[in-house]
Design a protein that fits this description.
With about 230 residues, the protein is α/β, with parallel strands linked by helices. It folds into 2 domains: about 110 residues, Type I PLP-dependent aspartate aminotransferase-like (Major domain) (Aspartate Aminotransferase, domain 2); about 100 residues, Aspartate Aminotransferase, domain 1 (Alpha-Beta Complex), CATH 3.90.1150. The protein contains 7 helices and 9 strands; from the N terminus they run ββββββαααααββαβα. A 4-stranded mixed sheet has the order 1-4-5-6. α5 packs parallel to α7. The chain is globular and about 65 Å long.
């Protein structure tokens, strides 16, 4: 993670992706710059509290921690709305934002489910600070186990490690294929890494409980014993 950020003097904003799902990297602290930050927070929005003041625009596909796919959360500062170019397509040219009107028929089911998820987060989990603590604990369980194992190797740089997506490699690609196949049989879904980087990846979004991560660690330990 760069310590100092040089922003072009003509820049109007700095775009960052707060959590990158493929390589499993996450901004632990956001860069301090003189221009507004714009961020794709699709994969870690609602996983931790953060100070929204430096951001001019935040957008997040809802499908990770907020609700069903096909919806997105957009938080935009009022002064940024004035800067939207007229050539932008209607959905981002935001006449609804300007005129405080609705754009289309609201996606009622999606809004309903998002409400349920937010209620769960607030009432069952006790909010963002609580979910961050759980998320960090889950990632620590996996990373501590892998770092000790001498078999599984986390691929993200230590200080940039994401607590949402944990990519890792096994000693050989054959073992990785076997690991994913056996894990799938044992009920652990989606452990194959993104096709552009290969390897394996555990995505442990808010909905993944700590017990599921403990089960995965114990499956990984068993697999290592058999194969390592
Ligand atoms: C940071 C980030 N941006 C964008 C996307 C893609 O979202 P969508 O499939 O809604 O285009 C993802 C999904 O993995 C993501 O993690």
């Amino acid at each position: 993670m760069p310590k100092d950020f040089q922003v072009d003097k003509d820049a109007s904003y700095l775009h960052i992706t707060s959590n990158e799902t493929i390589r499993g990297t996450q901004w632990a602290q956001f860069p301090k710059v003189s221009v507004p930050l714009v961020s794709d927070m699709s994969s870690d929005f609602m996983s931790r509290p953060f100070d929204a003041r430096p951001f001019g625009l935040i957008y997040a596909g809802a499908q990770k921690n907020v609700g069903p796919s096909g919806s997105a959360v957009v938080i935009v500062r009022k002064d940024m709305i004035e800067r939207i170019r007229p050539i932008s397509p209607p959905c981002s040219n935001t006449p609804p934002l300007r005129k405080q009107s609705l754009h289309n028929t609201p996606a009622c089911f999606v809004i309903y489910v998002i409400n349920l998820v937010l209620k769960w987060l607030e009432e069952k989990i006790a909010g963002l600070e609580a979910i961050e603590k759980i998320n960090r604990e889950k990632a620590k369980l996996l990373y501590d186990f892998m770092d000790r194992s001498g078999f599984y190797r986390g691929t993200a740089e230590k200080e940039s490690r994401s607590f949402m997506n944990i990519p890792f490699r096994l000693p050989t690609e054959d073992l990785e294929a076997k690991f994913v196949a056996e894990a799938t049989k044992a009920g652990f879904a989606g452990l194959k890494g993104h096709r552009s980087v290969g390897g394996c990846r555990a995505s442990i979004y808010n909905a993944t409980g700590i017990d599921a991560v403990k089960d995965l660690v114990s499956f990984m330990a068993d697999f290592q014993k058999k194969a390592g």
